[in-house]
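Entry 14. Two folds queued back to back today. First construct below, sequence then structure tokens.
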Amino acid sequence: MNEYIVTGYDEEQNEVPIIGNHTTRILTDDWAYISRVVRQALERGVHVVEINLQAGRRRAKVIGYEECDGLYERNKLQTRVALLLPPNYCLAEEDDALFIDGSDDRGWTLDGFVIPRLAAAQVTAREVTR
């Protein structure tokens, strides 16, 4: 079961009700149902409908960060990793370790995009559970 957040906007980009509330949470695996909700909202005069799939948060640890010699080397690695991340993932430094936090968004997934992209840049990261 997926959770979708459906938000409607009028021509001035103000939020407008979709189903009773301004923002509607829908729990379903039926994409046809989501399509019907959107079609009905558009027929009622909603100008734009935004649909966001709420995926779970994921985390990966950057391997080798602890062995970096000094602040300069750590900053260099942080910058290198940050430049390779899509907008749905960010860096977090905790307890002398570097982590990548975020949630999957369309094709930008941790295991299908982020970790392979880092590997291509010779940076190793492994998914961890909290």
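Second construct, same run, same settings:
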Amino acid sequence: MEVYGSQTISKRPLREQRYLHFELLPSDEKLIEQLPPEQQKVLRSEGSYAKRAQEIGVAIGTIRSRLHRAREALSRLRASSEVPHNEVGSH
């Protein structure tokens, strides 16, 4: 929490907003299909943690956990699907 004048402002909503903003690229769809179904669902859902939790029918902590695992897995898949620059055009 931060105090500005007589107002106390929580950093949590801003932090949650930044964390929830994870750009999915059109090329990610095939990679997402490789993830477990619960990770696919949470990546494709939209809104706050609370909205996603209600939509999917799980606790907010479960949403946070699944989003974290799904993003980590997607990042690894993105990295493994890229062709290293030094191998482009060499045969």
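Quick look at the second one. Residues 1-10, 85-91 have pLDDT under 50 and may be disordered. The longest helix spans residues 60-81.
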